[in-house]
Amino acid sequence: MKSIAEEAARWFARIANMPPDHPDRGRFEAWLAVSPVHAAEYAAFAGVWEDFDSAARLDALAQAAAKRKAVLKQTEDSQRSARRHLLKRGLLGLFVYGGAGTLAWRGLSLWNAQPLQQLALATRTAEILKQTLPDGSTLRLNARTALSVTYFRKRREVRLDRGEAIFDVTHDPARPFIVDSGVARVTVLGTRFVVTRLEDRVRVSVGSGRVLVNAQSGDASDGLILEPGEVAEITATRPPRRVPRSAADAFAWERGTLVFDAAPLAEIAESLSRYRANPVRAHASHTRITAVVQVSDIEGFLRDLPAIAPVRVENSKHETRIVAR
Predict the structure, then answer these.
(1) Are 203 and 174 in contact (CB under 8 A)?
(2) The domain 117-247: what is its CATH number?
(3) Residue 25 pLDDT exceeds 60
(4) What pTM did the predictor assign?
(5) How far is CA 58 from the centre of its chain?
């Protein structure tokens, strides 16, 4: 019969390069759950693993186990020695115990860092996608949006690479739900919110519950907690701050409507481009517009835009340009 240490070493060698959805991961989890000793042995091997290359794995681990047995034997023999030897045994025992604890901590950290499930989602021009996640949370991706979802043992993470998404998150205090949107890091304290990644900033709009918004790099004390109905914006050079906007406007595209409240033309152009084969480019940076646009009538809005703003609209083969008059 294999020893627990040998089983732990073999599991570690197999798990290292195993994909997250491999069926053996379930058997590995079951082996860990049999006894705390299994988890401790695996954690110890994971901790010392960084010191060995792949070709020397099992030999090096076997040598480490042999050395450990020798130390334990010396410790037992020293029980029959004088007080001086007893003191040495005590110090050695303390060292061995402390070292094993450190290795176990490092091993468990590596174990927790392994992804359990991963999912990549992307939408095309004018496409909207709804996705239910394994924990019951739902995502709705606006057009031209790309994100990835990774589930770990102690957290759930989404990376929003471009576009806009509505998140309706199932509450799980043991596994926080975190959205990384480039310059902003959003930690969910509640349920329903929108993260919009624009070219020059990130906007977070809360429909219900609460979220914590932090700069991706910076002091955590700059974090901002948003309540229902509140909106915050953050840039690469400015910490999150509340802005006087209606959070409900951010959810309007679910119903086929785009709402702009004193929005710069650059933002309008970026939003319209999600629904057009030819992108819209703005060249009138100081003009702001308030408008409600039906996704089904974006071309009509562009046609009528010069009547409500001091701009002209120029169409070419590859893009539409909004230019100041």
Answers:
(1) no
(2) 2.60.120.1440
(3) yes
(4) 0.66
(5) 34
